[in-house]
Write a structure and sequence with these properties.
With 135 residues, the chain is of the alpha+beta class. It has 1 helix and 10 strands; from the N terminus they run αββββββββββ. Strands 1, 3, 4, 7 and 8 form a 5-stranded antiparallel sheet that branches. A 5-stranded mixed sheet has the order 2-10-9-5-6, with no helix packed on it. It is globular and about 40 Å long. The N and C termini lie far apart (78 Å). About 4% of the residues have low confidence. The chain binds copper (II) ion. The site of copper (II) ion (CU) has 6 residues, from strand 6. Copper (II) ion binds next to strand 6.
Length: 135
């Protein structure tokens, strides 16, 4: 009985360690990447181009070949969270830089919501970036 109990305890401790190790590894992976705006100000209009850079924070290097979705762009920064605009992906012209075309009809602050799937990483990287449309 005593042996049985201690074996169970050992297994429980081991399982706990494994669970903790897995959870922190997953979180560390996706948190190692960052989005940044190539330009914080973009020209207001139908064909506003928004470019974001995806980098690996551990190396500072650009990350190409990620699948990025611009899930939403809205004017939440200017108190107009319900004011959205159409946005579509454009072909990349530089590795690690992801470009979108948006119909930014109004000058002011816009919040871009991004979701990314990275090769070899579990989970989805979700970030929001604030840019400014200028006349
Ligand atoms: Cu607005």
């Amino acid at each position: 009985m005593r042996i049985f109990l201690s074996t169970c305890a050992a297994i429980a401790v081991l399982a706990g360690l494994l669970a903790v190790g897995t959870a922190s590894a997953v979180r560390a992976d996706i948190e190692d990447y960052a989005f940044s705006l190539v330009q914080a100000n973009v020209k207001q209009g139908n064909d506003a181009i928004v470019a974001v850079r995806l980098t690996d924070k551990r190396t500072g290097k650009a990350v190409a070949d990620a699948v990025i979705f611009a899930t939403r762009i809205d004017m939440a920064p200017d108190g107009m969270a319900t004011m959205t605009a159409p946005i579509e992906a454009l072909p990349a012209t530089e590795p690690g830089v992801y470009r979108f075309k948006a119909n930014l009809t109004m000058a002011g602050g816009w919040q871009l919501s991004l979701a990314a799937k990275l090769q070899g990483e579990t989970g989805t990287l979700e970030r929001k970036l604030v840019l400014k449309a200028v006349p």
